[in-house]
Every structure is written in structure tokens, then in C-alpha cells.
Amino acid sequence: MRVGLITADPDHQLLADTAALLTPRHELVAVAPEATAAPGELADVYLLKARTPGALALARSLEERGAPVVNSAAATELCQDRTAMAALARRAGLPFAETRTVSALAALSRLDTARLEYPVVVKSRYSRRHDLVARVDGPVRLAELAAAWPDEPVVVQDFTPNDGWDHKLWVVADTVFAALRTSELTVGKDGRLTLPLPLEDLPPGWLDLVRRVGSVFALEVYGVDVLRGPDGPVIVDINAFPGIRGQAGAPEALAALTVRTAAGQPAVGVPLQNH
User: Fold this and answer.
1) Residues 271, 49, 181, 16: is their CA dihedral positive or negative?
2) 209 contact partners, CB below 8 Å, separation of at least 6
3) Which of 24, 89, 161, 218 is least surrounded, with the fewest CB atoms within 10 Å of its CB?
4) Same domain? 220 vs 88
């Protein structure tokens, strides 16, 4: 079996550990995300870890040639657009945070801010590394962000009162991994603390919820950020092919999924139409 890794970082812990499990029985080839075509013969399966426009275009071309890609280009792209993500989730009945879209952050700050019920959470519409995610408690903070990110398309979510911990849930095929992480809205990205979270400590119904996300979004490797809100779980973000660092069993689950996909076994998620 030949496995293509579409990534700029083939030494990433999850990919490296998965590769170690698959070799020497299988051949693994790193594919640059901005390549116009995959090198050599077509692989039996590709793992799409990169999310850049070039990587998505490459993944689409491979799918058109008949190669299976995990996750698909369409599912990956959907998770990059927080507006489309929220719309699909809410249509499917998932408890996703209510999300409004503004064409540019400067335009939001020029609105009558009295119409905003602070606090709110402002995020870049298009998810990417070093994007904007910030809690805004009033017009002064909003003006500061608008000055720094004037042309940034954003989404605005009502702030969900919570215990200060993000529930990080990761799924590979049907296997779920979990951790608690202090919210970046209070400590910033660099000061976050991550703690293990046994699955048996999750509130009732959360495992079914996170697996339903995979079905709705046609994802096989994904992450879901969930807050414990006053009225139950609130999903605030969904990520295609996250890092899942430090989760025992994740490389084994990914290796098994890779082998099954190459063998032509059906995917976990079934894409919804007209999303």
C-alpha cells in the first residue's frame, strides 16, 4: 500500500507516529501542499493534513483521479469557513453557537455598538493559523481589534457563560479522545493548560454528539470544541484533521483508518447535500 501525506510538516507527531506504525509494510510519501500534482504513481490513499488553498486544490485533483482522501477536500474546506460551518451545524440541529457574519471588522466597529450585547466573541471568518479569536467586553476593545484587523472578515458569537475550560474532543473514525484546555479567551494561546479527560467523565450524550458532528460534516478525522454552557453543551468550533498531540491510541486509530480507506471500506461520514 502507498500512502500520501499532504502536509508541510511530515514530522508532525501524529503523522510521524502513524508513519512508524505503517512502515516498513507500506510506503509513505510526503506531498508538498502547494504541489500541482502528486509525485510518482497515484497512492492508494492520501491524508490531507494541510488546509491551504493549494492543498485543497491538490486534494480535489486527486479525488477527480479516483484517489480516496482523508478528509475530503469538500469537508476540509467547509471547516475553514466558520459561517458555512455554523449554518450547516444549526440546520442539522447541532447545538452550535449562534453565529453572525460581518464583511470586515472595521465595519463592525462602525455599527451602533449599543446593538451588541457584550460580551461577544469575535473570530476570523476563515480559520487558519494565527487567526483572530478574541473576547470583546465593550466598544473600546472592539475599536482596538478593528484598528489591528480592519479588513478581516469576522464572525460574532454571543459569549457562552462557562467554567473557563474548553472541552477538546477529537475523533479518528469512531474512536474519541478528550482533554480539558483552559480557554484562550482568558489566558491567550501561549498560556493554555491542557489536562487529560477520561471519556467516562464526559457529560451524558456528549459522545453521541461529537460522533454526529462527523456524520453531518462527512469528516473522519476531526476535532470539536465544546463548552459546558448553562443549558447544555455548546459547540464553538469544528476542525478538520487536528493535531491530536499526546493522545494515546490516536496514531493506532489513524493507521487503522488509513488501511481501511485504502482497502475501499466505506467512510464514516456521509456528506449532506446542499450545504
Assistant:
1) positive
2) 94, 95, 226, 233, 235
3) 24
4) yes
Does residue 209 share a domain with residue 180?
yes
pTM score above 0.90: yes
Q: Say what the pLDDT of residue 194 is.
A: 87
Q: Tell me the pLDDT tens digit for each residue of 152-194.
A: 999 999 899 888 899 999 999 989 999 999 988 876 666 678 8
In-domain check, residue 188? yes
Dihedral pair phi/psi, residue 254, rounded to 5°: -70, -40
DSSP state of 27: E
Please report the pLDDT score of residue 272 as a whole number: 38
Looking up cell 464526559 gives 202
Total number of domains constituting the chain: 3
- The three grid cell numbers given for residue 117, joined into one nine-digit string: 450585547
Residue 266: the pLDDT is: 57
Q: For 264, which DSSP code?
A: T
DSSP character string of 94-151: --BPPEEEES-HHHHHHS-GGGS-SSEEEEESB--TT--EEEE-SHHHHHHHHHHSTT
Range of the domain at 10: 2-78+252-262
Confidence band (pLDDT; 50, 70, 90) for 20?
very high
